[in-house]
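Re: zinc ion structure - here you go.
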Amino acid sequence: MRTVLFTKDLESLKTAALVVGVYEGANFEDVEKYEALSSGLVSELVRDKELTGKFGKILMLRLKGDIKKLIFLGLGKKEEFTIHKARELAGKSAVYLRDLGIKEFALELFEDLLPYDVTFAVMEGVRASLYTFNDYKTQKRDEVQTVEQFTLVASAPNFMEIDEAIKESLVVLDTLYYVRDLQNKPSNLVTPTYLATEAKKIAQKYGLTCKILEKKDMEKLGMGGILAVNKGSSHPPKFIVLEYRGGKETICFVGKGITFDSGGISLKSAKNMDEMKFDMSGGAVVLGILQAAARLKLPYKIIGLVPTTENLPGGNAYKPGDIITFSNGKTSEIINTDAEGRLILADALVYSKQFNPIAVLDFATLTGACVVSLGEFFTGVFSNDTLLFDKINLAGEKVDEQVWRLPLSEKYKDYIKSNVADIKNCGPSEGGAITAALFLQEFVDCKKWAHLDIAGTAYTSNNKDVLKPMGGTGVGLRLALQLLKDWKK
Ligand code: BES
Ligand code: ZN
Ligand code: ZN
């Protein structure tokens, strides 16, 4: 989809549809500028109280001139209008027009908010909500509706800020599409080798350094976690190390890259098992963060670590009762082979120490327990540093990828005490998201670490949020980029 910025008079605009916002209780003066365009229909709408401006309400006029349709979009109460509402409404109108079969539309930038912020939000709303994954639809492809051009109509004095916001948002949204595509592609395509090849490709394209640790390298390093999980799979494991050098201070991102989680010998039930192709979502987000960081030229050194393997049962698979040794020498008893994410992350967290990072963040579809506690609208966050949590929380608020802090309390440590090893990989079902985080903490050295359990937010099977169409949501990407942008603030 092309994006065009239009700063001239509405009279010279040619479009299939122009979306304009109207607040609740708007009077004739507020919408007078559309009177001529609509050949006098607007005054009639106001007179007959048809222009309610109620939040999300859409009223469409069919016109005769160069603007074929004029769409009044209800913004709700003026004093309650926010960036979040702007984002959501831009998304709603884009989907509405796409579903009408419109290939090109324009939207007049909402006023009363900072031009940069509102432009960014509108771009996010339009792009994130129009995302679709059609790679495998070979039939009726012509019936797939797509918008080819979006025109943002804005006032000329703010041109610089708006243009800047468009450019930056396009990088973020391009990357969001990249992450969602990776998530949505099936696991017969997206194997660990596929992810490693992707990492090499983005390194080449955006000037990152990429190193792939192969199975033999992992053996040398004693990465018993990822090696154990890999045993049941016929695809070799890969450990992706991406590096972007934009500054001195180092921030490390770790992403869970289980390309399919069957549960292994502790096999999952068949219901919804297909969704376990999304178990590499954390890894996809990290590949996204690294490429966007390079494109946005962020002033930090950023390391991306993605341990990746399948988790499958088989004659050689690791088993409950096994004891494994990680790269830092710690041992774990395996109680449940379905608690595999923490095992591969443990080795990655140990590996992160050598970069001496000022902060480490991991993204992982780690526990069903987190889905039970928070559902699909909040990501669970565990952190050993309140200031870091506060930053994450603020970034999440800004981009509407909200988070909720869960306790990283020593009180739960007994739950994962083992009789035969240093620790066991799973406790009782109570506090399951917490014990998973405590397990990870055993392998963390950094004073500023946060674990984001995205099990409930990484993908969706409904259309409740217009910005998140069915499938991978890419959650974590926009949050991390906002966090990095505001890091020094
Ligand atoms: N990948 C799953 C977690 C998950 C569940 C992600 C639902 C997305 C949706 C993880 O590897 C897992 O299976 N965790 C187990 C841990 C348990 C055995 C301690 C779980 O949460 O049931
Ligand atoms: Zn699992
Ligand atoms: Zn998993």
